[in-house]
């Protein structure tokens, strides 16, 4: 190799997990938020992490393998990767909801904000697709999307602002929101953080404004018996829920959000449930389309949704016992092809901060 060739540096360098990084190894994006650290590479996926967001390992009392848990007592909580594969998964789940609600005038959300909302916030915006589409739909509104890391975008509408921040800190936005939107944040917070997040939403929404949340169940279901009882796909959801419980970030927001929204003080609460095919097996044309996209969503997303939780908190189970990663599930689903009527479920919940706003009509 010639010595005079200058090798161009990658501006996004990822550290292997468990290396305590010297402070000068941070990415350029961290200048936005001094303690948002560079990502780490673990099991082939890239994760972003907050230095102070540490959680205790919840040790299992019964250990069938007779060995002690690893000596580490703390770990950064990472949840889902922040890499291209995950962004594609978010894109698919966004598209999925647009197809599901394509018969509505506004397929992006249900809250009756009217045609001239002024300030909208999307919490944990991921790739920012929802925030961007809402900004396009309401050019006179300011739509903010906030996440722990910046999405890989080169262009956003001028009325859309994507910010890097930790939503659990005190909010400093000055204008009260017409709508705060949350999508797929299940498992990101412990009970205390969750309560304070809903409270901050309430305090920062204008009277007559709305909170709207969409959450997915990680349980893969089937209305008939075509999905075998021993299928890893059946046990993947329960295993993930068990691991999340051990991690202190329980799953199940789809079922708890109604109470969480009510407990924060919101009224006029509505919940809409969706049953979504995985794969193009339904006869109905719209559901077939939903199934196609949902299949892409789960096949591309299961590894990312499950990898960190299952490898850190899933317990040392053999693959056949359902301890497999999302990748194993993906392979199994691939092997079954489209012969099985898989389903996933999700719900949208919304509530109003009492005021003079428009009432929701179901
Ligand atoms: C499963 S993703 C969902 C992304 C997007 N809402 C969607 O549905 O496509 C959850 C997102 O929440 C973000 N998140 C988790 N905790 C957060 C926090 N404390 N502050 C801001 N964002 C957070 C994660 O970084 C991740 O992008």
UniProtKB/TrEMBL annotation:
Stored CDD domains: AdoMet_MTases (cd02440)
Taxonomic superkingdom: Eukaryota
Gene Ontology MF annotations: methyltransferase activity
InterPro entries according to UniProt: Methyltransf_25, SAM-dependent_MTases_sf
Pfam families: Methyltransf_25
Methyltransferase domain location: 120-209
Record-given protein name: Methyltransferase domain-containing protein
Organism of origin: Penicillium chermesinum
Listed transmembrane segments: none
Gene3D superfamilies cross-referenced by the UniProt entry: Vaccinia Virus protein VP39
């Amino acid at each position: 190799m010639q010595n005079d060739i200058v090798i161009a540096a990658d501006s996004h360098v990822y550290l292997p997990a468990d290396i305590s990084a010297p402070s000068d190894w941070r990415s350029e994006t961290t200048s936005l938020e001094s303690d948002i650290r560079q990502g780490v590479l673990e099991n082939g996926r890239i994760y972003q992490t907050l230095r102070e967001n540490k959680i205790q390992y919840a040790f299992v009392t019964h250990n069938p393998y007779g060995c002690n848990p690893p000596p580490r007592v703390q770990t950064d909580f990472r949840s889902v990767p922040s890499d291209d594969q995950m962004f594609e998964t978010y894109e698919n789940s966004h598209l999925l909801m647009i197809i599901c609600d394509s018969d509505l005038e506004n397929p992006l959300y249900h809250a009756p904000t009217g045609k001239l909302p002024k300030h909208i916030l999307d919490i944990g915006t991921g790739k920012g697709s929802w925030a961007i589409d809402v900004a396009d739909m309401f050019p006179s509104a300011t739509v903010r999307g906030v996440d722990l890391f910046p999405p890989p975008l080169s262009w956003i509408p001028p009325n859309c602002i994507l910010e890097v921040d930790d939503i659990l800190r005190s909010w400093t936005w000055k204008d009260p929101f017409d709508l705060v939107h949350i999508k797929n944040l299940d498992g990101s917070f412990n009970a205390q953080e969750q309560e304070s997040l809903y409270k901050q939403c309430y305090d920062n929404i204008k009277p007559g404004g709305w909170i709207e949340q969409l959450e997915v169940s990680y349980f893969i279901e089937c209305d008939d018996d075509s999905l075998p009882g021993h299928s890893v796909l059946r046990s993947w959801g329960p295993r993930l829920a068990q691991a999340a419980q051990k991690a202190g970030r329980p799953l199940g927001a789809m079922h708890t959000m109604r109470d969480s929204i009510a407990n924060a003080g919101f009224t006029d609460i509505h919940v809409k449930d969706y049953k979504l095919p995985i794969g193009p097996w339904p006869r109905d044309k719209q559901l077939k389309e939903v199934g196609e996209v949902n299949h892409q969503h789960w096949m591309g997303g299961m590894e990312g949704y499950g990898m960190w939780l299952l490898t850190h908190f899933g317990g040392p189970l053999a693959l056949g016992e359902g301890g497999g990663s999302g990748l194993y599930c993906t392979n199994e689903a691939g092997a079954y092809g489209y012969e099985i009527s898989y389903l996933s479920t999700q719900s949208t919940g919304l509530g109003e901060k009492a005021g003079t706003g428009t009432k929701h009509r179901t």
